[in-house]
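User: Assemble these into one structure.

Assistant: Restating your components, then the assembled model:
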Amino acid sequence: MAVRVGVLGATGAVGQRLIQLLDPHPKFELAALTASDSSAGKTYRQAAKWRVDSPIPADVAEMTVQATEPDAIPNDIDLLFSSLPSSVGAAVEPGFCEAGYVVSSNSSNGRMDDDVPLVIPEINAEHLDLLEVQRDERGWDGALIKNPNCSTITFVPTLAALTEFGLEKVHVSTLQAVSGAGYDGVSSMEIIDNAIPYIGSEEDKLETESRKLLGEFDGASLTHNDVAVSASCNRIPTIDGHLENVWVETEAELDAAAAAEAMEAFPSLDLHSSPDPLIHVFDEPDRPQPRMDRTVGGGMAIAAGGMQETPFGLQYNCLAHNTIRGAAGASVLNGELLAENGYL
Amino acid sequence: MAVRVGVLGATGAVGQRLIQLLDPHPKFELAALTASDSSAGKTYRQAAKWRVDSPIPADVAEMTVQATEPDAIPNDIDLLFSSLPSSVGAAVEPGFCEAGYVVSSNSSNGRMDDDVPLVIPEINAEHLDLLEVQRDERGWDGALIKNPNCSTITFVPTLAALTEFGLEKVHVSTLQAVSGAGYDGVSSMEIIDNAIPYIGSEEDKLETESRKLLGEFDGASLTHNDVAVSASCNRIPTIDGHLENVWVETEAELDAAAAAEAMEAFPSLDLHSSPDPLIHVFDEPDRPQPRMDRTVGGGMAIAAGGMQETPFGLQYNCLAHNTIRGAAGASVLNGELLAENGYL
Amino acid sequence: MAVRVGVLGATGAVGQRLIQLLDPHPKFELAALTASDSSAGKTYRQAAKWRVDSPIPADVAEMTVQATEPDAIPNDIDLLFSSLPSSVGAAVEPGFCEAGYVVSSNSSNGRMDDDVPLVIPEINAEHLDLLEVQRDERGWDGALIKNPNCSTITFVPTLAALTEFGLEKVHVSTLQAVSGAGYDGVSSMEIIDNAIPYIGSEEDKLETESRKLLGEFDGASLTHNDVAVSASCNRIPTIDGHLENVWVETEAELDAAAAAEAMEAFPSLDLHSSPDPLIHVFDEPDRPQPRMDRTVGGGMAIAAGGMQETPFGLQYNCLAHNTIRGAAGASVLNGELLAENGYL
Amino acid sequence: MAVRVGVLGATGAVGQRLIQLLDPHPKFELAALTASDSSAGKTYRQAAKWRVDSPIPADVAEMTVQATEPDAIPNDIDLLFSSLPSSVGAAVEPGFCEAGYVVSSNSSNGRMDDDVPLVIPEINAEHLDLLEVQRDERGWDGALIKNPNCSTITFVPTLAALTEFGLEKVHVSTLQAVSGAGYDGVSSMEIIDNAIPYIGSEEDKLETESRKLLGEFDGASLTHNDVAVSASCNRIPTIDGHLENVWVETEAELDAAAAAEAMEAFPSLDLHSSPDPLIHVFDEPDRPQPRMDRTVGGGMAIAAGGMQETPFGLQYNCLAHNTIRGAAGASVLNGELLAENGYL
């Protein structure tokens, strides 16, 4: 009865996290792994430079890695998780969908396409039905669903908890971990005793993805939320966990206590990977902190704290584990939502 | 002809930087060092756990440390630099001023007092004459001048360069180095692979000191600037150099090029420690960075970059060396201003 | 049927790890917590600055902290774990033993005393019976057992696995994590982008404790092993996990394969906290690494690798989690050994 | 009268340090820069991702980068510094020498060749005359001289200072900075909160290069020293500065004071880049430390400390700046020696 799943791009940093999460998963059974042509034919142990801090699962280690092509993987796979580089994702994901596969993708390509649902299940599960539009338009048997960028996932749940107050303006400054750039993304000479106030195209992702996630789907098309977001992104010397400073201005008055209460009360979902509570609110003003709090809720919760009123609305901080909630876990959770809603 | 100077609180992190800057200074001659009673009577080498990355100057090493009391230091000292803990500063600085000493202090006590000039020479040298008011009111022969907090000094020069556009609102997020908290201020277990989104009372300093610095002195009293500032402060694992993300909203239209031009054109002063240019503007979007750029202008310049227009005004980043321009060098420069203006 | 246990010095870094390990322990029930007088009377949540990366256990958080005195804790406690500073340990541990308590202590005081068993259960469980000698000599109803220093625990199991080859000389260079010095032991300004080639009295601990651990107990007295050990200790910027480079010269010929085999085959014990295998041997030459491998065996295993023959005997590397296997877990395991052997 | 010099491989990490050192050099005039074909024709500013913490020299920034071929550079160049990757060095350095250029190379290729002098001027300047043998054998008008590996340079001067005691055995454990692996050599995900107990082929370099450096040249051939060296190499999270723990066993008795005295008394040379003293000996047992002491002697001195007697001979620690004394500065100093000895 288990859903048979595969991972496209299984050897990279997010691919490794996917395997760490899928191996013990109660409903998903890992049945296919793909990577670049140079890895095809090797065992996973040979192909992957395993970097996750738990041992490589013994059975996965001996699986044979396939090329990233629809013909290379078994027909009876119900669901594919994709953590391909975005250029590769753009080139090959549509082919898998056309061949009938349902793909839950973490890759950034196509996220802003009108007929591609960009989903955080606890926030906008109803956008999933955009897949009907997608299948109509593209003539696919399969389907393509995306999760947002790691830095977007970190702050959007806290905004969603405040929508009742009428979101108007958001300033967000990020302090992002090096794992967000992939295994070789940031050299040690760049970041030890340093910070980099720029991450290419990251600011645009926070600004546009957040509006799509908080948008309204009327069954036919999606209207983006009109909250104005301005982001400034920084890389700092942390391994995992993106920390964000947020200022939010709202139509209705919003004080610190009301914001904390709204976040704590924001509901999680009855899906295996959705933590309860979704948003963990700290009382201590110096929390959340990346190393201390990135694993709250098994790495799937959002940590928040430091709410205070300012002349420009409410200021607070939030944090999420960027390769779990912000990437691999986000794709897995979308897979669970697809299964729950009969899309497999 | 040299000005004979002393350092109050000479053994701490800022005290050591003061000595590093004063020892080769062409106009100041180091003639007295004080510390806590437990250090009094020791040589400086014995009393200080020297941590600056250049050797302790040989002559200073053998100076005898005195107690931090007016009676303990020579009468012929013209100028005292103070890097005392603020509670100690509040208790003893007035006594030195009453005893006739002119004190250029980095300690946070008294910075916001109406009759205490809070000065960055290139920004508001004209506030120095508030000392006349101070002497009148307090009956001192000496005088007390303050430099701002390190995180305030980092962004205020960039704002000063933009005043012609009419400053309205400023959001600032800081990524601050551990040296800002003093030698034992941040434990390694707190900060390795981590960030802390809270620095006690730091946000208030950015918000209030900036308005005083940018205020108008009419010869009798000081009117604070009415720009609204909201700060969010973070500690990150860097040794030196505070990096800040700034959004500024102005009355007049302000584009990225105009902002860069205004900053580059902002004048420095003809004082020994004032760098030219005062603000170094980078073209590369990923600069300034703490480790790469904190020593620009000998650690006395402000580095800026990343100007971009947003829906909420201009966004940019700035950086300064927090223990040089942000502390010891700021006090030394104020000392040079005092000498230049006949206050010694 | 659970053993009721207490923790002396419960608020420090090792004390927190003890609580993290004892709270879910199947055989031990946490019934008392002590700390310094200033903490006595507070709840544990109030008294401890909790720094472990899992939440403070809810029931422990509300326990009342007692003063560290025999009269302050319940009579029905069967076993006390001590993580007191060594000067405090020296002053108060004997009083608890005299009052009838069995104390499993991580503090360094008394470790080298002739009648105090210094024990790593998998290595020298038979030394436990030195407690008979201790009780005879000291007239105690209670008992005092010690575990070694964290850096000693890291390499001694690998030496024990090689004793059959006849240990002669050992050179060991350590790369130690900051948590080994306690929460405030190493300031961030000391260690970011740095290493410190000196840890006070640490080298002596490796050199002398290892000989006692590998010694022979004949039922009446203990003869230390005569292997000659020379250590050089360094602090590096890692949070947890001590890495050590070892050269060992043996009477019998010892090649890399034989060493790896002997380590892998070294038996663990049938105690709750003893991992199987005790020594995890890596094939990859670049392992073990602190961040990747410190949690092998739940933080209770020793990781080893890099065996190679040199002109001076065998060279290899080993690693252990310094606050789990090297401190809190070591004390807990000694407690399990005491329970198993009827000493409670 | 200045010597016109060029840099082969000018865009890499060591190439940038070469430029930083050569630009202000009183005797060398930088006249040619080469890099890979993809950089040829660009200005140096365009071709190099400048990473040194002082600005790129203005005149160098506008120089045109050439291909790394003898025909591509001016004929009037007297001396070439090479910081090419070793595989490229092996392929192209001989061609330059054949074309008449004298090459002072930091690349590892050919270092152990019988007719290639491997030189640290203060240690074995007399090996330079091996160039006569080289020219005879190879028929070159030019010449090829090498400096050793960065980790070798760090400890060999301290051994050289102790040769009078009769070197027998050396154990050395290294704690090496990430810059030693080049700009992209160590990813941040590998090294933050971590250490890596393996650096490919590094141990062999310390063991063999040290014996060649300390060898005897009789005018015709070189006899390597027969001291036995065993090295264990580690990468740690420091930017610059290799720290090494050394145990040395000698024929004659050697105590800590005599070792310190011999090191302090070891002579430097009358060359521009040779610091005086060559070896800076610290009294404090916790020095040298990478961040504090890597710039002693302008980054060209060796720092040493922590001398203590052990059962296995003397133990001490030493440190050098790996990209200055250990690479770029080493090549420049060899260039000065070549000029001084009439080889240009």
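Chain A has two domains: 3-149+327-340, 150-321.
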